Amino acid sequence: MLLPRRATAAAVGATLAASALLTQVTADAAPLPDDAVPCRADVPTARYLVLFDPGTTAEAASVSTTLACGAAVVFHDAIDVAVVTSADSRFADRIGRDRAFSAGAAVGEVAEREPLPEAVGPVADTDRTGEQWDMDMIGAPAAHRVSPGDRDVLVGVLDSGVDASHPDLAAAVDPAASAGCLTGVADPSPAAWAPTTSTHGTHVAGLIAAADDGRGITGVAPGVRLASVRVVDDRGLVFPEAVVCGLVWAADHGVRVANSSYFVDPWQLTCDRGAEHVVFEAVRRAVEHATDSGVLTVAAASNGGIDLAEPRGEASDLAGGRRVLDSGCKVLPGGLRGVLTVSAVGPDRLKAGYSSYGLGSVDVTAPGGERDDRCVLSTVPGGYATDCGTSMATPHATGVVALLASRHPWATPQQLTRMATAQAESVPCPSDYDLDGSGAQDAYCSGYAAFNSFYGHGMVDALAAVD
């Protein structure tokens, strides 16, 4: 039930009759001050992610929100998480700071990117698969001769939007399964899930499912369908309410694999404490709900080059502050249970210098390119381009999982994970990891050949997935 942006004295008085509904949702909230009514609009309207206790009804959540001077935008009843707007500076205190968090307010002002350039002429018909060293590394061309993947398998590209007009993607993108989630509410209109300032989502989509048609490039699983689920805004930021919306959308629309080539802002690593607990718990609930609904989330390990298993120390957030990190701080969603997390290697099969790692934090590895060598070629609006990152490694793993889901249509996310990790090709720790020749190790790999901190269980294998 949607409520007015600001509650009047009469409206609040009416809701007090439903006080029995408030017990479970306001137990930890600060008491209402004497001047609580009427609400005031003393700050720019902010969007909040709000946690409610398990079993909270939409009506109870709406009443609680109104009493705190917020307007409910959406209530995800499957995970008891709401998206709320408020222009009252007292909203978080009223509903409880252990329940509400605004990523937008924490980030502050960030400049928008330039719009995508106009495409110049049609995409060339040249076959560029000979430039795809990354596909050769995971056995994708051989896999295509056995199976390109099944049309019944839907892969969600949770990213900055996918260009459905690109010739390599036009047959793969399913508009009926696509949506924009930037406001925290799913919007299925094509304008909401199309890219506006970023080529990232289209690049990721091509690596998963670009057509095997003798032109352009070919993805790992060219026979599957894609859902463009936009969670990256025009500033390149990924707010938790968008991610929650995207995962709930995936769970509700038959997505089998959700590619998450991002980390959730406003922090590269989110700690499960204080105000950060709201973000951590909301995303955790969304991932768990998606998993329970049959969706396997495949996520990037991130590009910070840090040991995710031991992230102790200080880190800067987007607002310029410092936070003390501990082992409870994780990259989201990659650090959550049930997520298949992917590190990146370059053409030499060595962990890319930018790729984060960690024993027990990384499940598999895949080609993401190395900035000082060769990056990965894929689709972008209007053509093709190369890029590097764990963002590029992740869709290779997603494509392999999509091939597995095609061959094993009744497999659960847990079973798909076991198959992907069991079939991965072991990559042992390097004997020397001195990337710049300085004589000092740039990172330390721990574990053994079959499972280590750099490569997890090893390199994903497309041929093994279909053979």
TrEMBL record:
Gene Ontology terms describing biological process: proteolysis
InterPro entries cross-referenced by the UniProt entry: Peptidase_S8/S53_dom (IPR000209), Peptidase_S8/S53_dom_sf (IPR036852), Peptidase_S8_Asp-AS (IPR023827), Peptidase_S8_His-AS (IPR022398), Peptidase_S8_Ser-AS (IPR023828), Peptidase_S8_subtilisin-like (IPR050131), Peptidase_S8_subtilisin-rel (IPR015500)
Domain of life, per lineage: Bacteria
Domain Peptidase S8/S53: 151-458
Protease listed as a keyword: yes
Residues of the active site: D159 (charge relay system), H200 (charge relay system), S391 (charge relay system)
Keyword field: Hydrolase, Protease, Serine protease, Signal
GO molecular function, one term: serine-type endopeptidase activity
Signal peptide span: 1-29
Protease among keywords: yes
Family: Belongs to the peptidase S8 family.
Protein name (Swiss-Prot/TrEMBL): Secreted subtilisin-like protease
Organism: Actinokineospora spheciospongiae
